[in-house]
Amino acid sequence: MPESFVADLVGLSTDWYLAVAALAEQSPPWLRLTAEIGTEAGLALFAALFLAAWWRARARGARDMALALLAPCATVAVYLVSETVKSVLHQQRPCHVLTDVMTIAQCPPAGDWSFPSNHAAITAAAAAAVIVAWRRLAAVALPLAVLMGFSRVFVGVHYPHDVMVGFLLGVLLAPLLVLLLAPLLARLVQRLRERPLPVPLLADALGGRRALGGHRVSSAGR
């Protein structure tokens, strides 16, 4: 059953993959190089977004800090789910099946399965989770996640359906995990902040407000 399901998906998206591969082959060298580097290096940009959300949360309430801390944790959880699905379905990468197609990136070794795309799952999860923590980051996080997902097909290492399913896993699971665990972690953060010697990484909401000029920061303008 899983094998036939994967085979049907491969059949549906092979034409899309070939169309994108042809586009990549005709693209200028600078674009191919940018895609090859960016498809991996782009993950570091999400680490920067996590850091920005955490830094902002240091001067805000316990719930904001909980959301910021849970964003990378939820991303790791989604990656583990994606990797588990890969290990069950065993779909070969297109660059192993369609060997006459030029790819920008080197094809991963056999056994490094294709479905779903871990990169797409990670970037979608990171984007969704960090937006829950700080909505204003949506303008950066969402386009970046979509671009990262497309790059996996553009460089030749994934079918379109690998990316789409990975994206769905990230977008659906990461916010759910963050919102389910936020109340529990927020209580813990509040207790740690109220200790005589507070945890520096969690900062102090009251101290943060004083640093901002004594005005209480509203959580409405995420």
TrEMBL record:
Q: Which InterPro entries does this entry report, sorted A to Z? A: PAP2/HPO, PAP2/HPO_sf
- Give the Pfam families listed for this entry: PAP2 (PF01569)
Keyword set for this entry?
Cell membrane, Hydrolase, Membrane, Transmembrane, Transmembrane helix
- Could you tell me which Gene3D superfamilies the record lists for this protein? Phosphatidic acid phosphatase type 2/haloperoxidase (1.20.144.10)
Q: What is this protein called?
A: Undecaprenyl-diphosphatase
Transmembrane segment boundaries: 37-54, 141-159, 165-186
Q: Classify the protein's membrane topology as the record does.
A: Multi-pass membrane protein
Q: Supply the source organism for this entry.
A: Marinactinospora thermotolerans DSM 45154
Q: Name one GO cellular component term.
A: plasma membrane
- Output the SUPFAM superfamilies linked to this UniProt entry: Acid phosphatase/Vanadium-dependent haloperoxidase (SSF48317)
Q: Which residues form the Phosphatidic acid phosphatase type 2/haloperoxidase domain?
A: 65-178
Highest taxon of source: Bacteria
Which molecular-function annotation in GO is an example for this chain?
hydrolase activity
Location comes to: Cell membrane
